[in-house]
Structure prediction request, 91 residues.
Amino acid sequence: AKWDNIDYSSWGVHDVYIPGTNATNTAAPYLLTYNGGSSYNFSINQSSYYDSWVRTDPSDPWWYNINNTWLDDNPCNGTSKIGFDEIKITY
Prediction:
């Protein structure tokens, strides 16, 4: 899945929504691009959430000029499901 964001030259807080169905992966791999080409790789244990918004970096939640978000289902290899729904950016 790929979410393209409107290009705002501003600081924003980034959250992803973990749906209550088909989200059993314990290390769903995400990639966030920001600041004209920088990237941040992170994973979320989706099985720990149910119909919840999750902050992508709670230690320092502010990102500058968020461009897009990727969620890769390739590492699953059929062993678990990755759920995806939407992202939220608050400026």
In short: The mean pLDDT is 88.
